[in-house]
Amino acid sequence: MRPLWLYFELSVVAFAACLVLISLSNWRLLRRMDCYRPPLRTPRVSVLVPARNEEAYIGDCVRSLLAQDYPDFEVAVLNDHSTDRTGQILADLSAGGARLRVLEGADLPDGWLGKHWACQQLADASDGELLLFTDADTRHDSRSIRHGVAALEAEGADLLTALPHEETVTWAEQLIVPVVPWSILTFLPLAVAYRTSSPALSATIGQYMLFRKSAYSQIGGHAAVRSDPVDDMALGRRIKALGFRWRLADATCDVRCRMYQNASQVFEGFSKNLFAAFGNRLLPFIGVWVWLSIVFLLPIGLLLAGLLGAPIPALDAGIALAGIAAGLASWGLCTLRFGFPARTLPLYPVTVLLALSIAVRSVVLVRRGRTTWKGRTLAQGSLRWW
């Protein structure tokens, strides 16, 4: 029995070490958008912003987009039946410049999720060769469009998506929001993803999606993913599945975003997306989260048991220390690359536990049909075992 347990411990640590190696490889391959040479041509860009009850953000977002130094672009914002001051803020902004167009959202058709319908209306009304979808809670450096176009053209991509700088203020944000960039940096080997058409090897960030309009139309646009809660991931997978070119970049110097304001929003937002990102497939979802819990929590549990007096052999303690070192390295690389607070690094086990609780909540909400976002109950696909 002892050799089998030892083999299991070594497997856990080896897996954690592989994650560190993937992170190091991705650190090199994930290029910053501002590192590309200026584009040789400047095709017209339609910047598309869906907005529903975004009075706290929409002004800063639109002003940052209107201040772009790119020569040929438009900004189109769709007011999606907002009940706050979003509409008035947009009306005031549109009075001051010809680049901004404000659309009023049509009624939500059956079978559509709200944001997806808003994005499709924006795309249909656009006239750019390139479509940049971005969120109302983002703020853009004046070179955001220029750098995005430069990266898209240099990579020959049909979809360029990018990771923004995620601002985190509360403890809930600081502990949970890093899960998204960490999972991409750690589990998506770009060296393989860029060489295969497998849709599974992709990650698309809704805060910055720059499409060639021709490719967006050929994959069916948002209409093709109208009921998928994670439309960004679904669009990226369709791009790869249908033979188009997908690329991922680092936009931390070009785009800033505060996704959530408090713990309630963090839990609601992640609960909406976590299980849906697995296509509501229960067994793979359970398998991934059980294994992640083992990889990042078992070494700590063994070491604590030893410190509390349990008879832990020295070899097991050494393996546990190696596992903890790998965990710290994995989360440390993410913290350093994306600018998260260093004080949260030793708390990565808490992050794993919180993410695990959200994962369970995400399944329960889908099972009960109670997943909500911004006052709307989201239609969910049926729960599947595989």
Q: What's the helix-strand series?
A: HEHEHEHEEHEHHHEHHEHHHHEE
| Main sheet makeup | 8 strands, mixed
- Please report the number of helical segments: 14
| Percentage beta strand | 5-15%
Features:
eight-stranded mixed sheet, 14 helices, 2 domains, Spore Coat Polysaccharide Biosynthesis Protein SpsA, Chain A, 386 residues, alpha/beta
Q: What would a concise description of this structure say?
A:
With 386 residues, this protein is α/β, with parallel strands linked by helices. The protein contains 14 helices and ten strands.
Q: How would you characterize this protein structure?
A:
This protein has an eight-stranded mixed β-sheet, with helices on both faces. It folds into two domains: 2-25 and 278-377, no CATH class; 31-262, Spore Coat Polysaccharide Biosynthesis Protein SpsA, Chain A, CATH 3.90.550.10. The protein contains 14 helices and ten strands. Helix 2 links the parallel strand 1 and strand 2 (73-79). The chain has helices at residues 2-29, 58-66, 86-94, 114-125, 144-155, 171-176, 179-187, 190-193, 213-218, 231-241, 263-273, 282-307, 314-338, 348-368; strands spanning 45-51, 73-79, 100-104, 130-133, 138-140, 159-166, 209-212, 246-257, 372-373, 376-377. Helix 1 (2-29) crosses helix 12 (282-307), helix 11 packs across helix 14 (348-368) and helix 12 (282-307) runs antiparallel to helix 14. It is α/β, with parallel strands linked by helices.
